[in-house]
From TrEMBL, chain A:
GO terms for cellular component: cytoplasm; transcription factor TFIIK complex. Gene3D superfamilies: Phosphorylase Kinase, domain 1 (3.30.200.20), Transferase(Phosphotransferase) domain 1 (1.10.510.10). Keywords: ATP-binding, Kinase, Nucleotide-binding, Phosphoprotein, Serine/threonine-protein kinase, Transferase. Belongs to the protein kinase superfamily. CMGC Ser/Thr protein kinase family. CDC2/CDKX subfamily. This is Serine/threonine-protein kinase.
TrEMBL record, chain B:
Residues 53-85, 294-333, 386-412 are annotated as: Disordered. CDD domains: CYCLIN_CCNH_rpt1. It comes from Drechslerella dactyloides. Residues 54-77 have a biased composition (Low complexity). The lineage of its organism: Eukaryota, Fungi, Dikarya, Ascomycota, Pezizomycotina. This is Cyclin-like domain-containing protein. Residues 102-184 form the Cyclin-like domain. Belongs to the cyclin family. Cyclin C subfamily.
Amino acid sequence: MSSSASSSATRPSNAAAAAPPTRRTLPFGNGHTPVPASVVEIDDGGGGLSKDNSDDSDIDDPDDINTKTKRKYTKGTAPCYHRRFSSLIKNRKLGEGAYAVVNLGHRRATATDSAVPVAIKKIKVNTEFRDGLSMDAIREVKYLRELHHPNIIALLDVFSSKNQNLCLVLEFLDSDLEMIIKDSSLTLSMADVKSWMLMSLRGLWWCHKAFVLHRDIKPNNLLLSSTGVLKLADFGLARSFADPYRPMTSNVITRWYRPPELFYGAKFYSSAVDIFSLGLVFCELMLRTPFLPGNSDLHQFELICQALGTPTEENWPGVSSLPGYYVPHVDNAAAMVKERGKDFFMNTFIAAGESGVDLLMKMIRLDPRKRCTAREALDVPWFSQEPYPTKPANLPKKGGGKGIEKVGSDLKRKAGELFNSTDDASGRGKKVARKLDFGGGG
Amino acid sequence: MTEDNLYLASTQCKTWSFGPSTLATIRQNTNAAGIRSIKRGWKRARIEASSANTPAVTPIPSSASTPIPGAAPTPSIDPTAIPDPESLTPAEELTLVHYYILRLIDMSDVFSFPSNVKSTACVFLSRFHLHHSVQSYHPKHLIPTILFLATKTENHYIPLSEFCKRVPKLTPEAVLKHEFTVAGGVRWDFDVRHPLRAAEGGIMELLTALAVTANGSSDTGLQALKERLAPNPTRRVQDAHGRMKGFLTKEALVSDVYYHYTPPQVFLGALWLADKDVAEAYIEWRFGENSTMGRVTKKRKRDKRGKDGLVAKDKNGEKEEDTPSEAAKGPPLAPKLLSVIQSCAGMMTDARAFEKTPVEELKRIDKKLHRCQNPQKFLGAGIAIGAGSSDGGPKKPPEDAGARKQVEEGIVVGKADERKRKVEDDLFGGSLPVKV
């Protein structure tokens, strides 16, 4: 993994790295603009080469570090990747939404390292959020700086562009799980599903271990590298949890993957929310279509009740004390569904086998306290039984350049959704408004 | 996988933990870089001043018969004759940073922000100035930005317009202007590990355990703890809790403990300061002779909780291989831990001295800093400047109202005997509302 790159990049080093002295205004507000004695011409060709004029290189200066970081990367593909990304040479944009633009770029080759393709996610200045760095961007940076794991997308660097746009340099990933699920030309074996589940659970386990909730697990946030390794991405809704007495917003997680406790407005929830979402991804991998595609919050909840059972005090002690507790068709006892047993899931997901169904049921229990943790899920016998999980390199892949286009697809969120939920039904990523948790859960 | 591995992977441990000598070296380098930048500023201002003071335009022959009046003002001072200003020493920089950390605490209290926001803001300021000299970035301009950024990183966002309303003369532009500078200055490491969570957990553990012993327990360690805190152990722990929080939200933030110790060590250090008996009894119970949970590992690969704050570097090859039974054979951790805690506590007590820094000293430093940062004023780039000043530097002309206003905003002015409170008002550019 490239965590070494990220740590070395952020440390100030006056050696080697090109340090073009920058003209800038010091933040004293007195108009004093120190300018270096001599202006070294910026070399745009090779990168990383410069006379180390230590007296001029101002390591004291964050802007300067920023410049150094920025100069490590460039848009477009490195010559050595031209063939692989031939379809992208002209248009290096990988995705665009109102929230950010993702461009294909690469880290310039240096004496020791060859060029590496990267995704540069440029956070747009949001017209509706005038308060500086957006919360999405802050969360994403905050958590990705801390979480280093093979199954979590690597944040290589952060810099600001000349227009004061925030740019995140992310590991370049070819495709995502949603594309795989939707690609009808691919046949997914249970071993493949097992492999993806295993990698997702590993990534999730690490997040939860570090007390971070992802809060937006869904197939198009599970990205796949060219070598088939799955990585959790998009930490724009993540937050830390387990702070005693601190309420959290229940208005998170894309609707189709949202667990029942959040529909009930729970303010204190746990890692079980991510497990539920991943459980539904598991279903989707087997069905090749979303398991519970509700078209409104109410409809979504009815689907949960039908598919999994109606939450009651019996199957979920304490549920009735949640602020939004409600039971669909409460007057009609016949419409109440008992929490589904193994038979039901065995019928629907027979391909998973008995132990696979056991895992699934543990992940999507109604009562969050009864759901398994990521760690427990990793320990289930299913993963050590035949068929063994497929090796990442052998997993089905979306072919070639077509896949690249989807790397930025998790960006199709509207900037305005920070404040007003839009219910745009066009395009799956937009199906559910993402709401953000601003103040301490308030 | 243990808690330790998790902490060792954090940016706080990887990039923001140092031994005392390393920390001093970094500060020395930062100071040197600051001095270089001041020198550059002065050098440039000197050139500007000379060119402004000498007739820059050679009279164009024949085309203009009359010389432009006032084009070349006669220099009243010679810019080259004024020596470079005296720059700040690392110690002076640190004094100023500590002062502004205290101001940041006051500012946070104006908003009644939770301790994690307050603590994060203070750590941001400290970390920022670890790598960036106050000679390049005056903390006074940064603290509103830092506090606002901390509200966002700690998920306690309040709209900027609200934020600005509570601080007189603060504009949204002024806050946002430095946001990238600050964010980049803390290396985008927004996650700060505070001792607050460890503290709440530790106190909860103590109180729960005491509630259990009230009903009789066979745990001898717990009995010893109870006896030591007699007659009313629960009350004692609760009192210590309150005082400990005070240390964690002040002394711990002003001192360097965040760089040298792990969050649980800071917690225990604060607890020790709050009530020696509670801390020692707690450590004895959890890590003492009768405890099986914390032992000095035989191979001395890493002293669990013991030293990893000080030897935070070089984790490669350190694997948690010791089985619990193996660990249990080692000597108890308590004595070792206690000495670490005590040195941590000592560092926090020393930080109290910063609060007592005389106002005159702060003014003296700020005056120096002002001179460093404003070469134009002292070199008289185009402005006639009256000579003579109390500290040897030229004084601003009384008639230049604009420049004077700037100076007043820029530095700690006021009469020599003004109270500290007044100083802090000036620094914020107006009176701060007292605690809400």
